[in-house]
Every structure is written in C-alpha cells, then in structure tokens.
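Record 1 of the preview.
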Amino acid sequence: MGRAVVGSAEGGGVDLLHNRFVGLLVLAAFPPALEGAILAGYGFRAAEGLAPQFSAVWPYDNYHDLRWLMVYHDSWLTFFLGLVALIVLRALYTTALVMLAWPRHLPRPRFRRLAWRNLALTVVVSVVVSPWAALSVAASVVALSWLLVASLLPLFLLAPFLQRAAVSNSWWRGLPSIELVGWSLLNFVVLTVGGALVWTVPAWWTAPVAAVAGLINGLLWQRTVGSALDPRRPAHWARIPVAPLAIFLAFVVPVVLQPVLAALPGKSTKPPPIALLDRPLPSNVGHAVIFLAGHSSAYDGEPPVDPNVQWFSYRGLDSQNRPLPFGSRDTYRSIESSVAMLDKQVELLHRRTGRPVALVGQSEGALIARTYLADRPHSPVNALAMESPLINAGRSYYPPADVSQGWGVVAGWELRVLFRLADIIAMSGSGPEEPFVRSILDNAPFYRNDLMCPVAGVRIVAFLPTTTATEAPPGKYAGVPVFEMPAVHGGLLARPVVEEHLLNFLGGQPISQPERGYALLQEASAAWQAPPLALGLNPVWRGQRMADPAFTGRVCQPI
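->
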C-alpha cells in the first residue's frame, strides 16, 4: 500500500505521512493541549479560551503571550525578564513551525538564518501588538465592548501583512495575496471557534479540544507559509512599502478617530429622550425615582416633568436642594464620592415626597447605585433598575501612577501613554487614572462578584444590551432578573420596549427576558479576553474575601 497523498503543489503532493508534516501537527497541537490541561487543572475557567492561540499564526501568537504578561507581572523587572524570555522562546518555537511548514519543493534556509529572522520578527511584532494587548487589559478593567473591539481590530487588519515577514525579504512591500488574506481570516475564525469550544466542553475535554485547535493551527501554518513563499500571482503595489504604512495607520487611526467623532457637531448637554424624564409617572408607580446617568454624560439642569423624578447630579445640590447641572468631566469622580452625594440626594427626595425611592442607573450610574445599596443596607431605596452595568469589571489591575510596583504596573503606564496621546486631540481628560476607574481597580472583588447579586428588601432588574455578552469571559454573571436585547452599551433606555418594561418594573411587575444568543456571544469572545488576575494574588484585594468568578464561572458565590 502507498502512503496517503492529498492534492498537489508544483508537481509534488502533500504527503500526509511525511515526517515533516507529522512533526508540524504535533508541534502545533501539544503546547495548546498543555496550556489547556494546566488551566483546567487549576480550574481557571475564564482563561481557557486562550489556549488554542499558543500555536496560532502571527500575530495572534504574540497577542496571546503579551496579554498573559501584561496581567501577570508585579514589577518592571519581572515584566522585562518575562518579555525577553517570551521573545526568545516564541522566536525559537515559530522558527521550528516555519521550518516544518516550508514547502518541500522549495529550498529551505538553515535553522540559524530562520531563527535570527524570527527573533527580529518577534521583537517587531511584540512592539506592534503591545499597545493592543494593553488595551485588552483596559477592556477587562472597565468591561466595555468597544475597548475589546479596538484592541482586536488592528491585529485582524495587520495579520495578512505580518504573515510574510518570517519567510520573505520583501514582506514589507506590496499588498498581501488574496490567499494570505483568506488564510488569515480563517485563522481568526478557528481561534474564535476553538476558544468557544475549549470553554464550553467539560474540564476533561479541555486539553483534547485545544489539541484539535492546535492541529488546525498546524495546517494553517503550512498553508500560510506556502502562500507567502509561493504566491499564485505577483503582488499588487510591489514597490510600495505597504506593510509599514498599514502598521502606521493601525496606530494613528484609533488615536485620531475617537477625538474626531467626539468633536462632530450635535453634542449637547440636553439629555436623550427618556420617557421616565419626559412624561409623568404612571399612576401605578408609587416610588420617587432618581436617574443616574452614565460616564461622560451631561445634564443641563432642566428638571424632569414629574416632580417625583429627579436627576442624580455628579456636582451635588444647590442651596435649594436642586440637582446642579453637570458636564462630562464631572462624571470622572470616584464612585465613593458619588455614593456619598447620592446618599444625601436620596434622603432629601424621600423626605420631600414621602415615597420609597427607586434608582435607575445607567452604566457608571448603575455601579454607583449598586455600591450605595451595599454600603447603606437600610436606606429608603427598595427598587433598582440597572441599564448597561459594567459586567464583571475589575478583572485586571495596575497600581496608581506614584507606585512603582504592583500587578500590571507596566500595562498601567502603557495605557497612560496611549490615552495621553489620544487626549492631545480629544482633550476629554478621561483616562486610566481617573478616580472612577481607580475605584473599580481598588474594589474589584465587589464589582467582579457582587454587582449583579440580590440585595435583601430591594427589587432589582438589569437591562443588558447584547454587546454586554462580549465584555467578560463566558460565565453566569447575573444573580438578578435580566432583560436582554440587541443594542449597544448605554442604548437601551431610549427604546420604547425597554421604557415600557422599566415603567412596569417600577409599577411592581416582575421583569425577566433572557436573550437566546447571549451565551453564544459570550463564548465567541472567550478567545479574545485578557486573562483575569486571580483575586487572591493581589494584596490590594486581600482584605475583601470573596469567591473568584474567574474560577467559579459564577457570581454571588460564597467563599
């Protein structure tokens, strides 16, 4: 019997039993399986989706390494030692993969030459990928889907350009071939599906599923290297340095785009139309209501139509106990100071109306309202509606700017530099060191484990846009009733159907409407989250003893 052969390439078949091909598959499959086994052995559920990326094609392999390093270092020294070790080991590993993936009908360079090329490439790719890995840390701190997308989109666009670098001297010139673009797209799909499956299966299947994903990575290495070395047609724009231009745009566009969008005409301190603010409350609502707007919101001082409804002001009250107008920068204050102001505003509204108080919090406002209930269990508040709460926020950490050591110290400084560059144009003053973000970082155990938990004597509902599903690793993060529907962060309260359900909730009706596709979106994002920092490792958090959802996959769990 002959050996199995599939297809042909330049007169030579791809021999499925050839030692080089078998070696490639084994080398690509074993490390993801090992990582998956280790994570499953420790019960680190939230990070299991990263395992298939260990042997991914550039640049996702470096993205895998740097996210782990950005979260799991506690000093500048450990970061740079870890970075050097990761670069050297990654360069050797990719050199071996490239050599095994090299087409048999083409002459192959010596190992030493390929190793030096891959070492240089790993350094370049690490520099290119580093800001986006840091941005994924920011996404895990504040649990915002747009930050996750912003950290991933440049890699997705740059991948076809970088995949020629380890094998071709002219990789920086010309557009990548359509074949490379196709393999790059398939690479992204495989990692997304593989990450979802690794998380979905029982723990004893984690390593085998990660190994299968690694096998597919091996096939993609073979096809990608072959397409880069032996394109079917000449490259377009062959004399133009397209790759450096693409890398430059990947850095510049995100920095410029956000400020440009923020500067577009039409910005106003006028709040968005919300029935709760623009119309009298229905007769079946017996509460006084305080509306807490989200981060970067603004209020012009115009009171709601119903005297039993009141804005929460991030600036406090005037001499006549009326909420003061506020601008977007006023929302940057710490959650603790906002809670203190909310306490006064709740007491005065309750005293003025004689009614129990309901809180309606949006994004940051939801965190303030829920923290208030945790700190003041015997308040006049007996109902809370949260819209777009920051689910499972505080999964990473970095110390304050004046502290030189601590988990994520280098990631914190890289984020400060990135946001400072963006703020040169935006001039918003928002960034990773603002008091609101620091409140999440310092009190992460509460926001990771208790935000979506019941409170004795208080009716709670959470209105969740489907984008919330991509803001945390897969898991059951709601211990209260939820209403889920397709929308973006902060975009639900103006929807008529949500307005109706909100008023029904305030009127005493139970509200619950889970979305079928929500869990699927969670699983699809599993591969692209930064690994959470274990609660027990950070000395800043050790005074707050709580179960860790990164290991339990659930919130509201006892220790």
